[in-house]
Amino acid sequence: MLRDMSFAYFLGAGGVMDGWVIAFKIPNLARRLFGEGAAGSSLIPVYSEQLQKDPAQAKALANTTVTVIFLLLTLIVLAGEAFIWTYYKFFAPFESTKQMFALAGIMLPYMLLICEVAIIAGLLNAHRHFAAPAAAPIILNIFLIASLCISGWIFGIEPQTQTFIVAAAVIIAGIAQLAIQIPALRANGISIRPQWAVNSEAFRKTILLMGPMILGLTVTQLNTLVDDIIAKWLSGSLDKGPFFTLFARQINYPLKAGAVSHLFYAQRLYQFPLGVLGIALATAIFPVMSSQAAKKDLSALNKTISQGLRGTIFIALPATAGLLLVRNQIVAVLFERGKFTEADTTSTAIVLCFYTLGLSGYFLQQILTRAFYSMQDSKIPAKSALVAVVINIVLNLSLVWPMGTAGLALSTAICSYIQVIILIVALQKIMQGTLLDQLAVTILKTAAATAAMSAVGGGFLYILRNLPDGTRFDILRLAVVVPAAAGIYLLAARLLHIREIALLGSNRHDKP
After folding, report:
1. Could you give the number of structural domains in the chain?
2. Under DSSP, is residue 328 helix (H, G, I), strand (E, B) or coil?
3. pLDDT digits over 247-280, tens only?
4. Which pLDDT score, from 0 to 100, does residue 275 have?
């Protein structure tokens, strides 16, 4: 969050930031694909299985996976660099497009570094070590914040040039992220060496799982990338002009420069609870699900998945209501300074509203997809993700004209629930209809507690409505509303005997 506040201060929400967002998302999508699941989620079940059966084969699997992914991504990076240079040199029509591709070319090698970090993280998670993998994104954030502050405050460099300095910092950060994993590997008795046991059954199983997982586990990230690309494509600017020509007709762009930035800042805010709570919960229970699936203990697996779903609802519903309640204040407090204006706050808050409507869907996706992956089934999540991505593109192109950037956010929210429904129906068949037991009760009780929370939070906002505008007074509003609303939610949860409240005070996964 501090990183995103730094970007808002120095780069604002205009054309320069639009280019940075998409350029960084190209290599950063690899982190989304691998760091939040595909490599780790395909490797953990197979690696865990091999640890129980044959530790030597588990070591060979780890070494081979690291070696193959390194060589494969090296080829992808080289091909990507060639494409970027060719497009930049001969086809980029506008200066803003050239800058975007130049930044992408600098940062593309980060894809290789962060994917190796992700694979190592999967190995460490299988050994129940989470600290070093969790520290990796912190390292990246420190480098990005430092490069922005030093280039902006100390040297007074303009935003357009700043982006190139920050892009170089991304590569340095990737090297540091990889370096901090090595001591953790040694402490857990893992030594990575080049190996090529590609004919082993364990490696083939890992690769067969990984391909569909890339689509299945990261559909939300793919949909937000589609949002950004469409927003960039349909945004008017000084160099593009206010309209484009199609079939000899002039058509006004439905968006303006800064649309991608508004999407980005809104995404960061809804992804904050998703990353801190939703993905953390899914990451923590995934090794447990994988172990239960490896033992063919479907009863225990069903219990763990069901608990994960109920815990997700308990966290996601109040998070949704909270973001909707204080969306304007939180955007203003976090971002409205430097080059980020009051108009940017209003635009970002509107987009955030529609992204937030899908928060429960985003949370549930993380649990449901990992449930399938723990059983080494990646086909169903991939099919559901493909359906969601296609529908998202159609809805994007339909809703962007009447709703602008808000339509792109609404499309992503709708598609999250479409995928959840498909996954639940398929998982119910496997679990013979017992998966959703007690879920309805949890939803009703959580909704009641959330309603009480919203009423109290809304009441305090109404009482404080006459305070002057400004960051200091928005901080005061948040300081009053957030603790009061959270306290009421926890109190209501206890009065309603919502069992998932135990998640806040226990690290056990075997509670009923």
Report:
1. 2
2. helix
3. 888 899 999 999 999 999 999 999 888 888 888 8
4. 82
Count each helix (H run) and each strand (E run) in the chain, helices first.
21, 4
Burial class (CB in 10 A: 0-12, 13-18, 19+), 179: exposed
**Amino acid occupying residue 469:** D
User: DSSP character for 35?
Assistant: I
Same domain for 221 and 356? yes
Q: Are residues 229 and 250 in the same domain?
A: yes
Same domain? For 485 and 412 the reply is no
DSSP 208-268: HHHHHHHHHTTHHHHHHHHHHHHHHHTEEBTTTBSEEEETTEEEE-SEETTHHHHHHHHHH
Using CA atoms, how far apart are residues 167 and 92, in angstroms rounded to an integer? 20
Instruction: Write the burial class of residue 342 (CB in 10 Å: 0-12 exposed, 13-18 middle, 19+ buried).
Output: exposed
Name the 3-class secondary structure at 438.
coil
Residues 346 and 466 grouped into a single domain: no
For residue 195, count other CB atoms closer than 10 A to its CB: 18
The 8-class DSSP code of residue 155 comes to S
Residues 312/278, Cβ–Cβ less than 8 Å: yes
- Binned at pLDDT 50, 70 and 90, residue 508 comes out as very low
Same domain, 189 and 208: yes
pLDDT tens-digit readout, 316-337: 999 999 999 999 999 999 999 9
Residues 447 and 428 in one domain: no
Residue 497: domain span: 438-512
Question: Whats the size of the chain, residue-wise?
Answer: 512
